[in-house]
């Protein structure tokens, strides 16, 4: 029983990371048709910025805030500097993000080395607590809590604000939004800011979760982010929320009850099975 | 009138001429300082040249998807790695000879491409890209986790039981010729396929998939043929690569490997006959030169603002890639036409 | 028509290497309804999309005294244009109320007018627009353009296409009402409706303007309207000016 509880909480914690990566990816893709390969780079930027701040005695919450802010700025800069000039050329936009996705981790390892750096985990978050007889690390709860807050905030933003309305409409039909006299490119910058913030937050939290940061963390999390996005249905935040729970749990349980590595494989098998049954993903939204 | 008349046969026959030159290269003692470290015929240079040819061919095969059919696959590394690892596993585990192992390894790549292609192609556009990426990632994880201790994990897996004339530094020329043969096969296969009736449907799919559907054709089957053919060529490349490097490395399974193919194709010029080849050769050569430059004293003396980024070839290549996407949309292959266009305008 | 609200000259549109418009001239009067007519595939929708900058175009489009070439779509629309696209352009996953709210540009949107003309929209405010009937969706689309009193031009692309007769009447009433306040460029195949609403008309054939003048005059001339619009029977005697082959040079720019 206690093993099941521990695995569930850990799986949900991992799912929370996936959600933070996938929600931004999904929004960006839904609105702009851009598959952001630089999303992992944004995560790494957030991770290193948080690590840097935390190692300079900022205190974890402040460091996390700093990392998120840096990631957000980087993301906005990416959209304004590289994506926007290639407007109406989605393939080139994807290629540009591929270039950034290659260059940023390389730059990070040039500056701070290719090896993992230990993340200074604060004592308050390094402990454990007891839940239904299981000893669960506190950081899992932090991850789940952060993802829930982001999910609720995104829902509120999309459902209750005018900008959110523009984003939802733009996901459906970008051209028609402009034909209503709305500058949809502002929404582009906005979703990049949101996606970058969530990814950078995921980076800072990943440092906590894994206890270290390294230049390739972003790329490997990104791939599961992609899986979650496809499973949830491209462009759907709620779909991503459901899919990340499924992926996180399946991965943890399969990893525990089988040879190591099978968890990651089973996620992909799950994806293949889902696509065979429902090519449009869980929410039935077509690309 | 005279000069063009003289040039016309040259224009027609230059590929054959280039091939003859390439075949004869191992016999050359010419030095190209700056470009290659030793004389062309030296084992080190031949090894690098062979790698350039292999990646030129791989990029050409990958462009069958990207540039000819308009399919953005992020999982091409998987089929390359399937050829390498399957052959290597058969060699090390079963004691089969090289040729049967290579044939079965190639077959493994083909079957895998057919199987996974038929699932991934249920998605279109970017969804397809993500799914191919996920599958390739699964392969990469499998290799790195090293189930049963057969793949060698992060260490890679050295090949055993290769025929004597394919191992050892003194036989590098043989490996070079095999790489060249692989390139010729790839170029011929791609050229033949693109000119066939299927190739014309691919072109239609790339331009506008809807219109192909309106004509009453199902794009799915045609895309699958492209996918399997490209996968087969990649698996064959994997076998050649295995010979060339004497083993399988997990780096060849990663998404970064596929991304580097993408960079090669875009660098050289997607959808053109020679572009991907040029891109593959340039990229491979640049990566090796940059890597040896990074380890050399030239860079160590620079101030840190320059030294730090220059020590990372991937950083330079990533930046170069972004620059090309912006400044040179047709890649290197599109350069002459662009220059001519500019000249005509002026 | 010296002082037209919208003046299009030599509008050309190329989509995917295909020349679709070869030079459309069009004037929309500052009052009343101007009908844009032509057979299926003549280029009416493309003309409208070209005016709004939704497709890359060349030529001149002067709206309200200002050249709009080079402006982005939202900038053009912000200068006071309401647009009812051919496919209605409804956001299916958004509610009716959200669809309308998205179109608000004025500080005091004219919900009273919209709800007076289409009472159904008030009742269905919280329904997802994708679940509305075709007629109801068209009401949302037209309602969106009436919401902004600051609009000085409404462009409606076949607003009655595929609608039941009762709904056609409802839409016609709404357009008539709108026309009292704002000039309309109306693309329409329903000639009865054109007769009822339009003051002026322009006819497109094969991507260029084949005729322009008072609407009543054209509709009164049975021969002319038959050759231009192919009304009644398949016009095998159609003059159909043959489009010149696309210039071989890749671009004229
Ligand atoms: N995106 C496109 N790609 C290729 N051809 C197009 C495209 N859009 C329009 N066309 C072609 O341009 C021509 C004009 O189309 P358009 O939709 O403007 O006609 P229309 O007058 O609005 O017709 P209808 O009365 O049927 O709505 C048609 O032959 C159409 O097939
Ligand atoms: Mg039309």
TrEMBL record, chain A:
<keyword id="KW-1133">Transmembrane helix</keyword>
<keyword id="KW-0813">Transport</keyword>
<dbReference type="GO" id="GO:0022857">
    <property type="term" value="F:transmembrane transporter activity"/>
</dbReference>
<dbReference type="InterPro" id="IPR001851">
    <property type="entry name" value="ABC_transp_permease"/>
</dbReference>
<comment type="similarity">
    <text>Belongs to the binding-protein-dependent transport system permease family. LivHM subfamily.</text>
</comment>
<feature type="transmembrane region" description="Helical">
    <location>
        <begin position="94"/>
        <end position="114"/>
    </location>
</feature>
<keyword id="KW-1003">Cell membrane</keyword>
<feature type="transmembrane region" description="Helical">
    <location>
        <begin position="187"/>
        <end position="210"/>
    </location>
</feature>
<feature type="transmembrane region" description="Helical">
    <location>
        <begin position="256"/>
        <end position="277"/>
    </location>
</feature>
<protein>
    <submittedName>
        <fullName>Branched-chain amino acid transport system permease protein</fullName>
    </submittedName>
</protein>
<keyword id="KW-0812">Transmembrane</keyword>
<feature type="transmembrane region" description="Helical">
    <location>
        <begin position="34"/>
        <end position="54"/>
    </location>
</feature>
<feature type="transmembrane region" description="Helical">
    <location>
        <begin position="6"/>
        <end position="27"/>
    </location>
</feature>
<dbReference type="Pfam" id="PF02653">
    <property type="entry name" value="BPD_transp_2"/>
</dbReference>
<feature type="transmembrane region" description="Helical">
    <location>
        <begin position="141"/>
        <end position="158"/>
    </location>
</feature>
Automatic annotation (TrEMBL), chain B:
<feature type="transmembrane region" description="Helical">
    <location>
        <begin position="175"/>
        <end position="194"/>
    </location>
</feature>
<feature type="transmembrane region" description="Helical">
    <location>
        <begin position="259"/>
        <end position="283"/>
    </location>
</feature>
<keyword id="KW-1133">Transmembrane helix</keyword>
<feature type="transmembrane region" description="Helical">
    <location>
        <begin position="47"/>
        <end position="65"/>
    </location>
</feature>
<dbReference type="Pfam" id="PF02653">
    <property type="entry name" value="BPD_transp_2"/>
</dbReference>
<feature type="transmembrane region" description="Helical">
    <location>
        <begin position="97"/>
        <end position="116"/>
    </location>
</feature>
<keyword id="KW-1003">Cell membrane</keyword>
<feature type="transmembrane region" description="Helical">
    <location>
        <begin position="220"/>
        <end position="244"/>
    </location>
</feature>
<keyword id="KW-0812">Transmembrane</keyword>
<dbReference type="InterPro" id="IPR043428">
    <property type="entry name" value="LivM-like"/>
</dbReference>
<feature type="transmembrane region" description="Helical">
    <location>
        <begin position="72"/>
        <end position="91"/>
    </location>
</feature>
<keyword id="KW-0472">Membrane</keyword>
<feature type="transmembrane region" description="Helical">
    <location>
        <begin position="290"/>
        <end position="308"/>
    </location>
</feature>
<dbReference type="GO" id="GO:0015658">
    <property type="term" value="F:branched-chain amino acid transmembrane transporter activity"/>
</dbReference>
<dbReference type="InterPro" id="IPR001851">
    <property type="entry name" value="ABC_transp_permease"/>
</dbReference>
TrEMBL record, chain C:
<dbReference type="InterPro" id="IPR052156">
    <property type="entry name" value="BCAA_Transport_ATP-bd_LivF"/>
</dbReference>
<dbReference type="InterPro" id="IPR017871">
    <property type="entry name" value="ABC_transporter-like_CS"/>
</dbReference>
<protein>
    <submittedName>
        <fullName>Branched-chain amino acid transport system ATP-binding protein</fullName>
    </submittedName>
</protein>
<comment type="similarity">
    <text>Belongs to the ABC transporter superfamily.</text>
</comment>
<dbReference type="InterPro" id="IPR003593">
    <property type="entry name" value="AAA+_ATPase"/>
</dbReference>
<dbReference type="InterPro" id="IPR027417">
    <property type="entry name" value="P-loop_NTPase"/>
</dbReference>
<dbReference type="InterPro" id="IPR003439">
    <property type="entry name" value="ABC_transporter-like_ATP-bd"/>
</dbReference>
<dbReference type="GO" id="GO:0016887">
    <property type="term" value="F:ATP hydrolysis activity"/>
</dbReference>
<keyword id="KW-0547">Nucleotide-binding</keyword>
<keyword id="KW-0067">ATP-binding</keyword>
<dbReference type="GO" id="GO:0005524">
    <property type="term" value="F:ATP binding"/>
</dbReference>
<keyword id="KW-0029">Amino-acid transport</keyword>
<dbReference type="GO" id="GO:0015658">
    <property type="term" value="F:branched-chain amino acid transmembrane transporter activity"/>
</dbReference>
<keyword id="KW-0813">Transport</keyword>
<dbReference type="GO" id="GO:0015807">
    <property type="term" value="P:L-amino acid transport"/>
</dbReference>
